[in-house]
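[recover] target loaded
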């Protein structure tokens, strides 16, 4: 086998998933590693999978205990003399024979049933423990259509508010953080290390501590109830400055010096040289910013006082219909809320690994 073919085989998906510490031999550490990775996969994705599957369940299926993993729906049959379809049950008789009957009503531990094939035979009283509901896998996609129908234009207003805050705040964050990182990585001035340590020290301050001062500043600016009141207080992040600075340190200073010798302005150097070379780190900061802004709840809860300015997260917390909380629609809305994050992660995932790995190289 040639070296090229071996490389191609090792880079395949199956080769990656079956990779071992020792070539050709299975070591006990391989089993431990795969068990740890499998446990992490279950812990991370099981709740997400449960929410998505539950959003496709009927209200009756959601209320069942113990809960079922797959979405099921009881089969029904239309019987002459009854206005509504009746649920079907498999009933085991005293002779051990199984009959398929339709339940009319249940009273305590007894159920009144009727044979849908012979309704003239009259009603049959059977013990509940001998009856098993006839069910089939059913995807209740009407949960999503009912969500769109019941929320009307409000849902699209919440989506627009969340998208506007996320996109605008992320763009401003990338510009602000990259400018600060450029200054801290490519300029030599007294106090640069102190400035970097001061920026990183803000990570130790909980967001709830500065929530009241932030609200007072937003109120003084007249931005309460305005989307900009959520965007502006969070445009600069210490994590983003640190990641971008560490990445920009890997860019050779000779490129900057050569551009200055060609009489390029500092802004042109930053815009034409530094930013394109820092695209992997910018993608990492962007995905962190998108996750933070899209899922932000506390600051919008305090600043956004008008319902028409609510984000999707606030709408989820206050979502209810005239009939109370309908959990099947709430779960459908939760699933739709998570879709933009999944799309953003899929689009930027190829930059994340290289960006994070390169931020520690100097």
């Amino acid at each position: 086998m040639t070296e090229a073919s071996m490389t191609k085989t090792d880079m395949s998906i199956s080769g990656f998933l079956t990779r071992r510490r020792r070539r050709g031999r299975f070591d006990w550490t391989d089993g431990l590693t795969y068990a740890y990775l499998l446990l992490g996969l279950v812990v991370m994705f099981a709740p997400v999978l449960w929410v998505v599957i539950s959003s496709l369940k009927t209200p009756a299926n959601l209320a069942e205990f113990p809960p079922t993993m797959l979405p099921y729906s009881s089969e029904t049959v239309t019987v002459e003399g009854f206005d509504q379809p009746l649920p079907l049950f498999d009933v085991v008789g005293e002779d051990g024979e199984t009959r398929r009957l339709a339940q009319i009503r249940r009273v305590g531990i007894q159920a009144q049933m009727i044979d849908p094939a012979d309704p003239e035979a009259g009603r049959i009283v059977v013990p509940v423990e001998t009856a098993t509901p006839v069910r089939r896998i059913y995807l209740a996609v009407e949960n999503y259509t009912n969500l769109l129908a019941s929320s009307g234009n409000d849902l699209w207003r919440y989506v627009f508010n969340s998208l506007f805050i996320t996109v605008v705040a992320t763009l401003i964050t990338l510009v602000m953080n990259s400018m600060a990182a450029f200054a801290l990585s490519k300029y030599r001035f007294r106090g640069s290390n102190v400035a970097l340590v001061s920026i990183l020290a803000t990570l130790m301050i909980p967001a709830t501590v500065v929530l009241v001062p932030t609200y007072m500043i937003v109120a003084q600016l007249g931005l309460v109830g305005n989307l900009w009141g959520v965007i502006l207080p969070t445009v600069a992040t210490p994590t983003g400055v640190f990641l971008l600075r560490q990445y920009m340190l890997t860019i050779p200073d000779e490129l900057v010096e050569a551009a200055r010798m060609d009489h390029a302005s500092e802004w042109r150097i930053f815009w034409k040289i530094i930013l394109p070379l820092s695209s992997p780190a910018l993608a990492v900061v962007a995905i962190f910013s998108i996750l933070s802004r899209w899922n932000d709840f506390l600051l919008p809860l305090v600043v956004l006082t008008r319902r028409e300015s609510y984000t999707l997260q606030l709408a989820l917390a206050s979502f209810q219909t005239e009939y109370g909380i309908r959990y099947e629609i709430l779960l459908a809305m939760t699933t739709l809320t998570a879709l933009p994050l999944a799309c953003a992660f899929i689009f930027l995932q190829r930059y994340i690994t290289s960006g994070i790995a390169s931020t520690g190289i100097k």
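[recover] notes: Confidence is low (pLDDT under 50) at residues 1-11.
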